[in-house]
Design goal:
With 504 residues, this protein is of the alpha/beta class. Helix content is 42%, strand content 23%. The chain binds adenosine-5'-triphosphate and magnesium ion. Magnesium ion is lined by residues 245, 248-249, 318, 322.
Length: 504
């Protein structure tokens, strides 16, 4: 074969490889830093035609970054439409048309970068969540004591006693602190969530009177509720909290008034959406959107939006827990949320919750028993001294016979030596030596028919994951009031059958 023919053959092969390669490529003149040739994939990625590419300086696509980019790290390029993409470039020396040139292989990593950012954000949120959960745990014990004892004092004070007001203030402060702690816990991990089949339209409608009052007269509330909206499975109290937080934020963004829209819709999140968002499954969702035409947010604010305690509001106006709570609830419900915001134009927060295909089960709201007294025998195990004596005192006042101990091993002995019936075991979930769950399992093996009520402020040992969702596990979340305790105790004692322990 003559030499010329060989060369043409090589050129043709290169041409074919270059042209049809799925990866975007340029041939670049390294001296001039100009593009000599581009392939079809590069045309598709950048939106420039080959003719436009030829002779184009590399600086024309490069988005200049302050301080320059270290070589080898990804660069940001601008496409013909102005879209910014992240690319990794591989360079190889070649010969092109008889001159030394560079073959530049371009890898679009915009999607990967997006997911990496989300992953980093998720990891940060998880770390903060664990920290918050730990603090909230200790707070819960203290608040149970503060609220509980002030309620006991209140009950004992005769009407008209001058100390009434003081005790009431302590109780109120305790309750406010408990709400804050609960918010922290919601954010950090699922606690005592009671999901039900919900019609979000009904929930929005029934809350709208309250919402109107919340936002004042200068803001116009518009509802755009999709008539044949699918159902979702979520805790109604939590979704109300989501709605209130979003509505209050929207109101705060419109101090001079404006329009606040709450919108519901059936949507499908497709593979491409799921691919761009961490931990989102494609499928049918119900969308709940809260929009305002207020001040909007700049990029810096948007980046930190979901961080607990991040607020741009003056102290006293905001704690910065609103959106982190919303985030926690929505994620725990298997959903996702998107925020769109343009400075000076407004903000739209879209919450997606997985859509169920079944129609709403008709919820018969059982009339709650108010009679909370009883005379059964209760075995109480709680290592926190003050919580234990509060529970004991509340139960004794309500007529129960109570044996109590701080030590699960002692509880075992008490149960072995007691001849009568123990109707109910109330135990903390997290205890040193033996867990509440193990203790309950052991005692129930010996005492058929004994019911179990778990108490906890914060758990990390599976009762939440395995337990709360499993029907039949009775669980009381700290901090609780004596009234909630005695009510729960009645409920458990009167429930049919034996209580399962968590994880069964
Ligand atoms: N609709 C909105 N428009 C403009 N900015 C918003 C909007 N929603 C949230 N933000 C910004 O995000 C920040 C965090 O919101 P978040 O709800 O978490 O806390 P907060 O409203 O400041 O306090 P809290 O909700 O605890 O009272 C706000 O301080 C505000 O800067
Ligand atoms: Mg808020």
């Amino acid at each position: 074969m003559p030499a010329k023919q060989l060369l043409q053959d090589k050129d043709r092969k290169f041409q074919m490889l270059f042209e049809d390669h799925p990866q975007a490529m340029w041939v670049v003149d390294p001296k001039e830093n100009r593009i000599l040739e581009a392939n079809a994939a590069a045309e598709a990625l950048y939106g420039h035609t080959r003719e436009q590419f030829r002779g184009m300086s590399l600086d024309a696509v490069l988005v200049s970054e302050e301080g320059g980019t270290p070589s080898g790290s990804p660069r940001r390029h601008r496409t013909s439409s102005g879209r910014i993409i992240d690319v990794e470039m591989g360079r190889h020396d070649i010969e092109f048309g008889g001159h030394p040139a560079e073959l530049v292989v371009l890898l679009d990593i915009t999607g990967r970068r997006l997911l990496e950012d989300q992953l980093r954000q998720a990891q940060k949120m998880e770390a903060v969540g664990m920290l918050a959960g730990g603090v909230a745990h200790d707070f819960n014990n203290l608040l149970t004591i503060i609220s509980g004892y002030s309620q006991l004092i209140l009950n004992a004070l005769p009407a008209g006693d001058p100390n009434h007001y003081s005790a009431e203030q302590i109780l109120k402060a305790g309750e406010r602190a408990a709400t804050l702690t609960r918010q922290l816990l919601t954010y950090s991990r699922p606690q005592g969530v009671q999901p039900r089949v919900l019609d979000l339209n009904k929930l929005v409608t029934s809350l709208s009177t309250l919402l109107r009052r919340l936002i004042g007269e200068d803001v116009d509330l518009q509802l755009a509720l999709r008539p044949d909206l699918g159902r979702v499975s979520a805790d109604p109290g939590q979704i109300e909290q989501v709605l209130m937080n979003l509505v209050v934020n929207a109101r705060d963004a419109m101090p001079k008034g404006g329009t606040l829209t709450i919108e519901t819709a059936n949507v499908e999140l497709d593979e491409s959406y799921a691919g761009r968002h961490l931990a989102v499954k494609p499928g049918p969702y119900v969308q709940l959107a809260v929009s305002d035409n207020g001040g909007g947010m700049d990029e810096a604010t948007q980046a930190r939006l979901f961080e607990p305690f991040f607020t741009t509001k003056t102290s006293g106006r905001g704690t910065g827990l609103g959106l982190s709570t919303v985030f926690g609830i929505v994620k725990q419900s298997g959903g996702n949320l998107d925020v769109y915001s343009v400075p000076d134009r407004g903000t739209s927060v879209k919450v997606y919750l997985p859509r169920l295909d079944q129609p709403a089960a008709v919820e018969a709201e059982s009339a709650r028993r108010k009679v909370a007294k009883g005379s059964e025998t209760v075995l109480l195990v709680e290592d926190e001294e003050m919580v234990r004596s509060l529970v004991r005192e509340s139960l004794v006042r309500a007529g129960y016979r109570v044996m109590d101990t701080s030590d699960p091993l002692e509880a075992r002995r008490l149960s072995e030596n007691y001849r009568g019936t123990i109707h109910l075991l109330i135990t903390d979930v997290v205890m040193p030596k033996v867990s509440g769950r193990e203790l309950a399992g052991e005692l129930q093996a010996a005492r058929q028919g004994m019911k179990v009520l778990y108490m906890s402020g914060y758990t990390d040992n599976g009762i939440v994951n395995a337990g709360i969702l499993c029907k039949g596990v009775a669980f009381l979340q700290k901090p609780f009031t004596p009234a909630a305790l005695t009510e729960k105790v009645r409920e458990v004692l009167e429930s049919a059958g034996r209580t399962h322990h968590a994880g069964e």
